[in-house]
Design a protein that fits this description.
Structural class: alpha/beta
Radius of gyration: 17 Å
Distance between the termini: 27 Å
Order of helices and strands: EEHEHEHEHEHHHEHEHH
Strand content: 15-25%
Largest sheet: 8 strands, mixed
CATH superfamily: Alpha/Beta hydrolase fold, catalytic domain
Helix content: 25-40%
Oligomer: single chain
Shape: globular
Length: 264
C-alpha cells in the first residue's frame, strides 16, 4: 500500500490482520483495535526487527507498519523525527479508513519521539472532538526526551552521520537511509514538551536499563512532564535499545497493556 502524506511524500505501508482474522474486512475492523508501529532511525517496513514486532502485536490487534520518509521504499528524505509526524499521521488515518475505531501508536527510538509529537500535534479539533489522525493510546519505547543529545558514544556517531556530508553518504549507501541535508528550522517541539500535552490519552513509556543510546534520565524526564494519572513508566531490566532488542515477552506485555487501555 502507498500512502500520501499531507506534505506530498509517498510512504509504503502494510496491514497485518490480527491472528484471529484473515483479512481487513471493515465490518470486523470496527471492533478490532489497530496498532501502528513507528520504527527507529535506519529501520523500515521490511526489516526483520519490525516484522518480528508486527508478528508479536498481531496476537492482540491488527497491525499497520510503514517506512518513514527516506527509509525503505518510501519517498523523500529523513528529517530525523521532524516531518515524520506527517508519515505517522497518514498511517493513523489509513487505520481509521480501514474501519478501526480504536488506534494505538507504538514508536521505537526516533519513532518513539515521533509518536509523542504526533499525538500532541494532532490533538482534539476546534470543538474538542477527536481528529482522524489522533491515536487513542500512545507507547514510546527507547525514546529520547530532548534533542541534540550527544552524551553517549552511539549518539555521537549518529550525529556525525546526520550532520556531515560524508556521514549522509554512509547512511544512504551503507544503511539505506536518505537524510535531508538542511537543519531544523524551526526546532520541533521536544518529546518532553509533547508528553506534557497528551492527557487524557493513555501513555506508556518503556525503557531499558542497558540502553546504549539514551540513559534513564530520558524516560524519567518524559514521565515528569506527563500526567501521572494517565501515564505509566516501565524500566526493563536487561533491555537494550528499541525494536532490535525487544523480546517477544516484552512486546506481548505491551500489546496486553494497549488492549486493556484502548477505549472502545
Amino acid at each position: 500500500m502507498c500512502l500520501l502524506t499531507s506534505d506530498g511524500v509517498r510512504i509504503e505501508a502494510a496491514h497485518t490482520p490480527r491472528r484471529a482474522r484473515s483479512e481487513a474486512d471493515p465490518a470486523t475492523c470496527a471492533g478490532t483495535p489497530a496498532i501502528v508501529l513507528a520504527h527507529g532511525f535506519t529501520g523500515a517496513l521490511e526489516r526483520p526487527a519490525l516484522r518480528r514486532a508486527a508478528a508479536a502485536f498481531s496476537q492482540h490487534a491488527d497491525v499497520i507498519t510503514f517506512s518513514f520518509r527516506g527509509h525503505g521504499g518510501s519517498g523523500g528524505r529523513s528529517t530525523v523525527g521532524d516531518r515524520e509526524v506527517e508519515d505517522l499521521a497518514a498511517a493513523v488515518r489509513w487505520a481509521r479508513a480501514l474501519g478501526h475505531r480504536r488506534v494505538a501508536t507504538v514508536g521505537f527510538s526516533m519513532g518513539g519521539s515521533v509518536v509523542l509529537r504526533q499525538a500532541a500535534l494532532h490533538g482534539p479539533g476546534e470543538h474538542g472532538e477527536r481528529t482522524d489522525a489522533r491515536p487513542d493510546t500512545v507507547v514510546a519505547v527507547s525514546a529520547p526526551a530532548r534533542w541534540y543529545y550527544r552524551g553517549t558514544a552511539p549518539m555521537r556517531r549518529l550525529h556525525w552521520v546526520i550532520t556531515r556530508p560524508t556521514g549522509r553518504l554512509v547512511s544512504r549507501f551503507g544503511l539505506g537511509t536518505r537524510i535531508h541535508s538542511e537543519d531544523w528550522d524551526p526546532v520541533p517541539l521536544s518529546p518532553t514538551e509533547a508528553a506534557g500535552r497528551l492527557a487524557p490519552t493513555p501513555l506508556l513509556v518503556v525503557h531499558g536499563d542497558r540502553d546504549p543510546y539514551f540513559p534513564l534520565d530520558h524516560p524519567r524526564m518524559l514521565m515528569s512532564a506527563a500526567d501521572p494519572a494517565t501515564a505509566e513508566l516501565w524500566i526493563e531490566r536487561g533491555f537494550g535499545h528499541a525494536e532490535n532488542a525487544a523480546a517477544p515477552e516484552l512486546l506481548g506485555r505491551i500489546g496486553e497493556w494497549i488492549t486493556a487501555r484502548t477505549p472502545s
